[in-house]
Structure formats: C-alpha cells, structure tokens
Amino acid sequence: MFFSVQWPGAQCTGDILRICCKPSTGVPARDFQVQAMETYDSSGKLVKKCSICAFSADRLSDLLPTLHDYWSDLSCPSNDGVNQWQSAWCTYGTCSSLTQVNYFTRALELRAEVDLLSLFSSYGIVPTKSKLYGLETIKGVLASHFGASTWVECNINKLWFLESQLYKIHICVAADGSSVIDCPVTKRSNCGDTVRFVPFPWTSAVAGEGKLESGPSGKAMVL
Fold first, then answer.
1. pLDDT at 49 over 50
2. Which residue in 37, 69, 76, 202 has its CB near the most CB atoms, within 10 A?
C-alpha cells in the first residue's frame, strides 16, 4: 500500500477553479492531511473497489477528534469529512486486509509516526512564499528516513508560470499498514526541478465563511 498525505497549501491554490472551504467541524491541524492508504498489486497497478462497501461512521466515533484534525475534507461546500472517509474506505480499504476501524486507526498512527512537517522543518524545509526548494533535496530527506519507496506529487500552478507546488507525499507501507517498507515498484514524480512549499491556507483569516480561492499568483484568497 501507499500511505498518502496531502498539503492544504497546494490543495487550495494554483487554479482559478481550485477552491477550498473551511470544514464544518472547524479549521484542521496546520499539518499534512491524510488522503488514504491506497492499495496496489505487486506490479504497481492500483487496486480499488474490491467488494461491496459497508461503511459505518459510527464505528469511527473514538477517532473523530483526530480525524477532524488530520483527515479533513477541504472541498466546498463545507462538510464534516464523512463522505471523504467513506470514499477512502470503499475505494481502497475494501481491498486491504484491515477492518474499517483498523484501516483508519493505522493511517492516523502512520501520520503521527512519519510526522512529515517536523521532519522537513528539521532540514530547513518549511512552508513559505519566498523560497523554492530543490526536488532532489526533498526526495533525499524522504529517502534518508523512509528508503527509496517514496513518491512526491506536485500541483502545477497554472496561474504562476506552471510552478510546481508540494502537494502529496506517498510512502510505501506493508499490506497491514504496520510499517514502512521498500516497494517492488517505484513511482515517478511529476514535479519540476524546484518546488514551492505553499503556506497553510488559513494563516490569519479564519472567521466568516472560511472560503478560499486562488488569486492571480495562485495565493489563497479568503472570500
């Protein structure tokens, strides 16, 4: 499986149609957000929707505070994230060996264990509007801690010279989500040679509707 997280700064900028809304449960943690634990076969082919999906949000009641902080849905209109969790489970969880509760529990534990924001910060890689980082530098940090089986995905900012923005990090993990492993196949990054680590979208304006939209330079604008 690939454990996948995404950075809200890039999720909410880079295209005039790329709009984010503050979740109905409040502003999430200023950190990478879990996207899914995606299932692949041994050849590297994505495997999904393996069985009829039976999803129950009630089973996740003990995880809700952490889910709202680290697995939030920033799509519009504002929502509580349940539809996103259901989609992740029905698409990938049904192809794993895990129960619904274990799938979400292990994903949240992995997020805390890899702690990408702190890891990048320890190497001087921090969200900023004023600096670009080398893709090879980012890949080197990931490889030194998680091996070669990591994959960096960028959002291409169509409003600012097709600039690459750090968007998602994919880390190969065991089929049961218990540990980071070396995968038999690797994925290629779509990023350019340099990458911008866009600041978290809600830096000062949190009140009101909490709706963000890209400005001419791809910077988030509160509406």
1. yes
2. 37
Q: Taking the CB of residue 171, how many other CB atoms lie within 10 A of it?
A: 23
pLDDT in tens, 122-158: 999 999 989 999 999 999 999 999 988 899 999 987 7
| pLDDT at residue number 13 | 73
Check: CB of residue 47 under 8 Å from CB of residue 40.
yes
The predicted-structure confidence for 164-210, as pLDDT tens digits, reads as follows: 999 999 999 999 999 999 887 778 899 999 999 999 876 533 333 44
Q: Residue 45, class by beta-carbon neighbours within 10 Å (0-12 exposed, 13-18 middle, 19+ buried)?
A: exposed
Query: Whole-angstrom Cα distance, residue 179 to residue 172?
Result: 9
Q: Distance between CA atoms of 90 and 50, rounded to whole angstroms?
A: 8
Where are the chain's structural domains? 2-222
Residues 112 and 106: their CA atoms lie apart, in Å, by 10
Residue type, 59: R
Which of 78-105 are b and which e, b meaning 16 or more Cβ less than 10 Å from the residue's Cβ? bbbbeebbbebbbbbbbbbebebeebbb
